[in-house]
Amino acid sequence: MTATLFINAHLFDPAQGLDELGQVRVEEGKIAAIGPQLPVEGADVVDLRGQLLTPGWIDIHTHVFTAVGDFCLPADEVGIQSGVTTVVDAGTSGTLTFPAFRETAAQTAQTRVYALIDPSLLYIATSDFIAHRLGFAVDPKNQDLDRARAVIEAHRQVIVGFKARPTVKLGEIESPTLTSALILAEEYQLPIMIHLGRFPMDGVLDPSDLLDRLRPGDIVTHTYQPRFGLFDAEGSLLPAARRALERGVLLDVGHSGSDFSFNTARLGLDQGIRPHTISTDLNIFNTEIVVDLATTMSKFLALGMTLAEVIQAVTATAARAIQKSDQLGSLQVGQEADLTMAELVEEEAELTDGRGGTLSVNQMLKVRGVCRAGQFRKIDHTPYALPHSKSDLEIRQLAWVGAEHVNEEIP
């Protein structure tokens, strides 16, 4: 493999305090050297003048299991084509379909793909919410801990935790999926990502009861969910949410189409409730709203977070959330050469939150390139930043109407 030398880069790794002009040399898929002036011999030279060079971005909430159901998006469109070197599929496979997930999504993508597995035997993510319509998302018979353990042990290289939708049969107070996730997460010392918000056809645990059950390192996604979330009717943080934060529970954005509100984000940020990780929850419903991870990051810059906070939320902190800090999330010699190149551009734009809210911005983060395991590619535009065909747009609009009919976009 030919070496690559990135020159004139603004090296930016907030977790390490790195914020300076410099060069990075990549050899054999790994970071070989970082410094102000490195040897050129034997290397392809890439000039990054005017660009940030950061650790490879990590999106910890995506849906990329396209082989089953019609809810997901291709991993490489959400991933490297959008400047994201690592994606985590958030629960679009249960245990029965996980071998197919690994074979068709994780092993075929150029993007590094991990999974937060749904501990249920079967979960299928579809545009018509079939897991909820048919009732198996809340059926105790859809849980089998021994079979789940066998799948986890066979696919431990890919599974980085669990996704639990805390659904219950109407009138009941125990969530079979959450119960299984708590048992398995404790056994394997892995985090649980909790979907915060309501679901079609099913009940959900009260947020306060749910939050009190979470452990240090567990992740709440849809932090700025405007309904049935972390904040009470007056906009104040729930006491249970404060207790969870004090225990070390992490907050993830999980933008999605309907589970994020600018107003709720402002309420939270004004109270000091900042996300630990920024993620997209990209799926077929929301590409026009979310677009890519860079756009979601740009929204939080406009809402008052610093560039260092935003970059750290998709690098070092994201790596820590999935227990991969030893491999990902920093610019260190010897680590795999996963790098993202971006530019902070002066650009006026009107961004949307999916719930009718708009945000005027005058700066946008734009992805300019990506290096995955030493392979560099320039990026002129990300896949969902381009106009869709009329037929594609109509399909997505129809799907969105279906989601609004049941009040929430999931999973």
Automatic annotation (TrEMBL):
UniProt domain Amidohydrolase-related: residue ranges: 265-346
Cited Pfam families: Amidohydro_1
Domain of life of the native organism: Bacteria
Signal peptide from the UniProt entry: none
InterPro entries: Amidohydro-rel, Deacetylase_Atu3266-like, Metal-dep_hydrolase_composite, Metal_Hydrolase
NCBIfam families according to UniProt: PRK09237.1 (NF006689)
Protein name per Swiss-Prot or TrEMBL: Amidohydrolase/deacetylase family metallohydrolase
Species of origin: Thermostichus vulcanus str. 'Rupite'
UniProt lineage: Bacteria, Bacillati, Cyanobacteriota, Cyanophyceae, Thermostichales
